[in-house]
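Box 4.2: Ligand-aware structure prediction
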Amino acid sequence: MEKENLKIIHEKNLRNYLEKVGVFGFVKKGKAKCEFCNEMVTLENIYALFPYLRQVKFVCEKPTCIRQFSIYIRGKHYASK
Ligand SMILES: [Zn+2]
């Protein structure tokens, strides 16, 4: 995963993408947590994932988390494709 590129994944590609970056099992087992509200992120409520210090961070689809995520993106000058 390239550090500079933010990946916002559309639902139809989500499973493939999670497998590609090696976190599908992690999410499926309920081990992924939202970076902002700290609640469990599942295949049903995942909004986005993004790379941070070689880790993959997750964002759930709560409006408050999406909002914080967009602020975070701006702060970090990530580019969205
Ligand atoms: Zn959240």
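In the box above, the bound molecule is zinc ion. The two ends are 14 Å apart (CA to CA).
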